[in-house]
Amino acid sequence: MTKRFSVQQVVDALRVVLPAKAEQVPLHEPVFAGNEWLYVKECLDTGWVSSVGRYVDRFEQMLREYTGVKHAVAVVNGTAALHICLKLVDVQPGDEVLVPALTFVATANAVHYCGAVPHFVDSSLETLGLDPGKLEAYLREIVDVRPDGCWNKETGRRIKAVVPMHTFGHPVDLDALVDVCQRYRLELVEDAAESLGSYYKGRHTGNWGRVSALSFNGNKIVTTGGGGAILTNDESLGKLAKHLTTTAKVPHAWAFWHDQVGYNYRLPNINAALGCAQLENLPTFVERKRSLLHAYQAAFAGVEGVQIFREPSFAKSNYWLHTLLLDEEYADFRDELLEAANSAGIQARPAWTLMHRLPMYAQCPRMDLSVAEQLERRIVNIPSSANLEANHGEA
Ligand SMILES: *Cc1c(COP(=O)(O)O)cnc(C)c1O
Predict the structure, then answer these.
(1) Which residue from 11, 260, 357, 382 lies 20 to 30 Å from 323 (Cα-Cα)?
(2) Whose CA is closest to 119, among 127, 129, 107?
(3) What range defines the domain where residue 250 resides?
(4) 369 CA → ligand 1 middle, Å
């Protein structure tokens, strides 16, 4: 008997896993089941709500302990973290920075904020993130490596850095990418906004970049309402990150002395309080997402034409957002599937529009993006919250 693809069958499989609720099952919602109320209340009771306070220090310490990165600086959001990361590796106006075409717009925007030009690179089917092998082959064609850096022969601009993004929590092949960076004199900045709780070869993501960025936006695995962090194993960069994000004010009991143009990017204490409580539960969130993965896998085992995306073999992913991958031959059904799922009360969403299709980035340099374009047609994200009581696939 040949099985055939049907949108209805896909929606039915989602229904097997997800609770039957009156309201829509959201794609991702935060879970406040620990000390959130207590810690935030303490901020209000003591008056320490703003940019100084013990929760900021504690939050940064918890991030260091959890990720194993030596220095962590909490900031207002992930985009601000990326902006400062690029400044820290000395991205200058007129430089190019390699970023995946398949990413959230913040990755490219941060490059633009530095007066630099995003240069779009293709993705890998194995990780959904930047493909180091394909990047290497491309650089071999288009750049000159000189003592003063990596120069794009086609545009005449210096390529300063590369910003891989760990898509939906799945780490890119970092060892291969570090190797490319060394050979081509590129700075490595990890956009780890989606990968808190994800490991590459046993070590937490964010440890490979000279600097890395995290996000604690409301839809991320851990939230502070809005927030982000800069991670680095380089002590002087860690100090500079703190300095740049606190208006470059030289500490003094009363004098206002700022030694360069800085940014007011500090995370308020009240947000950090929320973050401390959330981080206490991060291991539980990761476990629950993994058990949701197993439920989805069981429910989709016999469904024709779609796969539940699995982490690459070298990684242990946080499975921040679960992903249905339509087989290529059924990619034309994506919008019909999105319609059917959303009207059945199951929030589902396509991948981001690729960066080179957005009006402000349409003229930017780019390599062949055929894999990213294929993934854009095939990806559908499905409900992934850590509070979903998965029905374990008795279908
Ligand atoms: C969420 C996210 C960001 C930005 O984080 P904000 O805190 O929303 O500014 C950056 N990059 C990626 C890939 C993200 O998913």
Answers:
(1) 357
(2) 107
(3) 36-280
(4) 22
